[in-house]
Amino acid sequence: MLITIATRHSPATDLGYLLSKHPDRLNQFELAFGKASVFFPHASHDYCQVCLLLEIDPVSLVRGSTNEGGPLAQYVNDRPYAASSFLAVALARVFSTAMNGECKGRPELAATEIAFEIDVPVLRSRTGEAAIRRCFEPLGYTVHADALGETPVNDSPASYFRLRMTGTQRISALLQHLYVLLPAIDGDKHYYIGNDEVDKLLAKASGWLPSHPEREWITQRFLKRQRSLVRAALAQLLESDEDDVETQEQTREAREEGIERPLSLNEQRIGTVLATLRAVGAGSVLDLGCGEGRLLEALLDDSRFTRIAGADVSLRVLERAADRLKLERMAPRKRERLSLWQGSLTYRDARFAGFDAACAVEVIEHMDLPRLDAFESVVFAHARPSTVVITTPNREYNVKFETLPAGQMRHPDHRFEWDRETFRHWAGCVAQRHGYHVEFLPIGADDPVVGAPTQMGVFRR
């Protein structure tokens, strides 16, 4: 994995001063995941080019990884080659003074905007070239992204690109842009995302991200869509109250509810899931992605469910669930049956094991498609309840919603919406891989042409 930065600024060898690296020397750095080398293939008065080469051991990554089903789960993967969070960490380590806007002995040089040429030989973008352009072009870069590998089929976007850019920037701004945007475009991170990641984003992006037209998308991807962290970051970036950001999120949720409200579809979903859990005789139920607790509320009202847990990645959403359920005023016996946990559905969690049934009601469509493998591993390989209930929108039915523009999804945060054939294929493969069998049930009016608005898979072993 490597990146080169070049300039024709006069004298071009000022690049060495800016980066605090001597052009005649090979600089090497030991990192937790490999070794970084910095060298200058060209260094003259008219043209200077610096290369950061990152050598990663993929075997050691796999052996030490807890990233179930993610890109580190296989010995053969793209992490040693494609620009990602590994490269971002290396940039911050080896060019730390430059990224912070410092240049010892030449402070005026650090404040000077210089024309740079940047070359990233391999960058993964699952959403194609458009995402790369939307990230860098608003910052003043001229972007050339050439697709690598075979030509995509079925109009699907290419996944890997060679990124070449030119732009006039202060060196600190250039490095900060790369530090934030490369892992955001790649869409994954090799380390745990916690509150300190918000601090990193604010330190590197507070000067430019608030005015960026893709600030929400970038923030979500940089923080791996952990809603509580995204909300906190946006609130600080925009210097607004976190509740204001939450209000915007609730407005988006209300849009989906408004589309489905005439069908009372949410009530039908809860009722159908509840009837299914009763039919299979489940006594303990785990609600994955429990949100504000609508299913939890229905489960608590039925005494046959003796152990109930709700898990969600967002602490703020769990707080709203606790308020909705009146947790503080709940009768002691009822309260003993319920647990609320903050946790990711794509990381193995020992608390998820031991339940008769697990439910993911309108959850999977909020995940990036590549993360479904991790979700599958967490639920079906590790938690392994006797019954798993999954509901998701039926894309074919969208033509029946008069208020939904053609081609749009029901919720702005949906990463995909599947037709019936695609959902059945995915569910069938999951069941086969993990020793389950799956049945499919419609939720809502079952149209003879486009099917029901919601599709449900019931997995049993």
TrEMBL record:
Domain of life of the source: Bacteria
Enzyme Commission code(s) on record: 2.1.1.386
One Pfam family recorded for the sequence: Methyltransf_23
Keywords, in A-Z order: Magnesium, Metal-binding, Methyltransferase, RNA-binding, RNA-mediated gene silencing, S-adenosyl-L-methionine, Transferase
Domain Hen1 N-terminal per the UniProt entry, residue ranges: 1-237
Keyword set includes Glycoprotein: no
Top EC category: transferase
SUPFAM superfamilies (UniProt xref): S-adenosyl-L-methionine-dependent methyltransferases
Cofactor(s) this protein cannot do without: Mg(2+)
Reaction equation(s) it catalyzes: small RNA 3'-end nucleotide + S-adenosyl-L-methionine = small RNA 3'-end 2'-O-methylnucleotide + S-adenosyl-L-homocysteine + H(+)
Basic and acidic residues bias spans: 249-260
Region (Disordered): 241-260
Assigned protein family: Belongs to the methyltransferase superfamily. HEN1 family.
Protein name, as recorded: Small RNA 2'-O-methyltransferase
